[in-house]
Design a protein that fits this description.
Layout: E1 2-7, E2 11-14, E3 19-23, E4 27-32, E5 36-39, E6 53-57, E7 61-66, E8 70-73, E9 77-79, E10 108-114, E11 118-127, E12 131-138, E13 143-151, E14 156-162, E15 171-178, E16 183-187, E17 201-202, E18 206-207
């Protein structure tokens, strides 16, 4: 199965559902050049399952690319893997595995590529949870802000930064925890400035 979303204008709001891009047997792509997407957490209503987002999980392949617009996410967002308990809350929802989703698989591939716009993640951004996950920050435009940045390295976690002529914008995080084995790739070949130091992760609370 393959699916693609292209958002260039207008607005979408997801209030009581997961945001799943390339999960299970699927390949999913999300391209955003404008408009707005808002995920609203369902935590206020205990009768609903936990809401989260996954980009590539349980054997699937997912990619989110953003170059413009607004993306606001109130719940946890996983890039490259996930676990079934992230999708359900207690016994409120039948097992996804029982419905045929291969939740035991750990070979997912997920990527989040940001080069512009305003992305605000109000919960954690987890890279490489039971899968291969990549967060790529390209250029100096836009703002990427997260509450908690995590690299889990349960399979593979990569943070990639590619500068434009003005440098590369940081990932702004309230806190960040980078597991042993995290790959950090930096490309400054297009940079024409004179700064000797460029901040890649802007946080006051870093564990590495």
């Amino acid at each position: 199965y393959e699916g693609e979303v292209n958002l260039s204008g207008g607005g979408l709001t997801n209030q009581y559902g997961h945001t799943l891009i390339g999960v299970g047997f699927a390949k999913g792509v999300w391209n955003q050049t404008g408009g707005s997407y808002v995920n609203v957490s369902a935590a206020v209503d205990p009768s609903f399952p936990r809401v989260c987002g996954m980009i590539g999980a349980f054997g699937g392949e997912g990619a989110l690319t953003m170059s413009g617009g607004v993306f606001t996410f109130a719940s946890a967002l996983y890039v490259g893997g996930g676990v079934e308990s992230d999708l359900v809350k207690g016994s409120a929802v039948p097992s996804y595995k029982a419905k045929g989703l291969p939740t035991e698989r750990t070979d997912a591939v997920g990527s989040l590529t940001f080069s512009g716009g305003a992305m605000t993640l109000k919960d954690k951004l987890a890279i490489g949870s039971n899968g291969k996950g990549t967060l790529a920050r390209i250029g100096s435009s836009g703002t990427l802000t997260v509450k908690t940045l995590q690299t889990l390295c349960q399979s593979e976690s990569t943070l990639a930064f590619t500068a434009d002529a003005n440098g590369v914008g940081p990932v702004k995080a309230t806190s960040a925890a980078l597991a042993d084995g995290t790959k950090v790739v930096v490309d400054l070949s297009a940079y024409t400035g004179r700064r000797s130091r460029i901040k890649l992760i802007d946080t006051a609370d870093l564990t590495a």
